[in-house]
Structure formats: structure tokens, C-alpha cells
Amino acid sequence: MGRLVVIEGLDGAGKRTLADGLTAALGENGASVATLAFPRYGRSVHADLVREALHRGHGDLADSVYGMAMLYALDRSGAADEIRALRAEHDVVLLDRYVASNAAYAAARLRQSAKGEVVQWVWDLEVGRFALPRPDAHLLLRVAPEIAAERAVRRAATEADRARDAFESDDALQQRCAAVYDELAASGWLAPWHVLDGVAGVDLPTLAKSLLA
């Protein structure tokens, strides 16, 4: 059974870049790697509803913290069998966002801490009721919210399909989300967490070896 490793962080933290680099580093160590990113835009009706809502479609849907969190969770629930299959076929499965993203953003939107009721609700829903595969490790790519925001703006300017959505453009939300992520990491929520410096850079060869140890 392959290891399930989740990359978490703010919008603009560099999760996709880390996933690409880590995939290459793991491959250099002889490991087979599969990747999957959430939300699964273009593959899941729930993910597509999320994207439309974040760009102000579907009335006031985006204003509902629990409604949006449910859509994110349903997207992952629909991918549960795929994740299990990938783990059976590969040494490592890298996920760009997973359950902790739902917990962090929902708590930040409600101005709750990682000990708040919505974080427990996410656990009960995704881990309990939906029985999603539990990760072996989280990689928190930590950057200052201001730096993440600058990166997201640059990305939106250069990639036609990456316009900033309602969450990405809310600087105060990103600040609160960063704090919740730190709390989740400190408590070892759901799986062990490894905090990485998203500004100074990540020693990919060393990280890859540690994940395979």
C-alpha cells in the first residue's frame, strides 16, 4: 500500500510547484508516484459547482460556509475509490489539498480556531461519514499571506484559467486561514505534519527520502 501524502497551504503558496518537484525527487529514488489535486475541476460536478460559486454563480451559495464545505467534501468522497486504487498501484500518492483544507478555510471563514466546532464537523463528515482514506503525512507549505497573495495575483495575470476567486482575493481570510493551518499542524490533526518553508525553498531530495523511510 502506497503512502498518502497531502500538500497543504494558502492559495499562492506554491503547492503545484512543490508537487512537481517532489514527484521528480521521489522518482529519482525509484518510487512510483501518482498525483491528484482538489477540487477536481472539470472532472467532478461538485468541484465545478464550487468554482462557479467562487466566481459568484449560483446566487449566495458561496456565502454559505457549510454549503461550500459540503461541496468540497462531496468532491473528495467521489474520488475515494480512485485514491485507494492509486495507493494500491504506486509507492506514493501526492494530493494537492485534502480534508485539512476544508477544515482550515471553514474555520477561518467562521473566525474559529482549529478547536472550533466546524473543524470537528469536517472530521465527522469526511473521515467519519464518508470514510475517506486517511493520509500518512501532511506537508504544510508555509509562506506569509502577503507573499502568497502576490503570487496568486501574478498567476492570475499570466494564466488565463487562474483568475482569483472570492477566497483568494480575501486577504483577511487568508491571514486567518494561515493561523488555523499552523494550529492544525501543531496538533497533528488527522496525520503527522511537516512544516516547510515556502520562501527559502525546500530540500526536495531530503524530503523525498524522509517520505520513503
From TrEMBL:
Q: What is the protein named?
A: Thymidylate kinase
Write out the catalysed reaction.
dTMP + ATP = dTDP + ADP
This chain's function reads: Phosphorylation of dTMP to form dTDP in both de novo and salvage pathways of dTTP synthesis.
**What are the leading ranks of the lineage?**
Bacteria, Bacillati, Actinomycetota, Actinomycetes, Pseudonocardiales
Xref: Pfam families? Thymidylate_kin
Domain Thymidylate kinase-like, chain residue ranges per copy: 7-187
Could you tell me which PROSITE patterns the record lists for this protein?
A: THYMIDYLATE_KINASE (PS01331)
Give the originating organism: Amycolatopsis saalfeldensis
Give the molecular function GO annotations.
ATP binding; dTMP kinase activity
Give the CC-aspect GO terms: cytosol
Identify the PANTHER family for this entry: THYMIDYLATE KINASE, UMP-CMP KINASE 2, MITOCHONDRIAL
| EC number from the UniProt entry | 2.7.4.9
Identify the CDD domains for this entry.
Answer: TMPK
Family as reported in the entry's similarity comment: Belongs to the thymidylate kinase family.
One Gene Ontology term of the biological-process aspect is: dUDP biosynthetic process
Keywords tagged on the record:
ATP-binding, Kinase, Nucleotide biosynthesis, Nucleotide-binding, Transferase
HAMAP family named among the record's database cross-references: Thymidylate_kinase
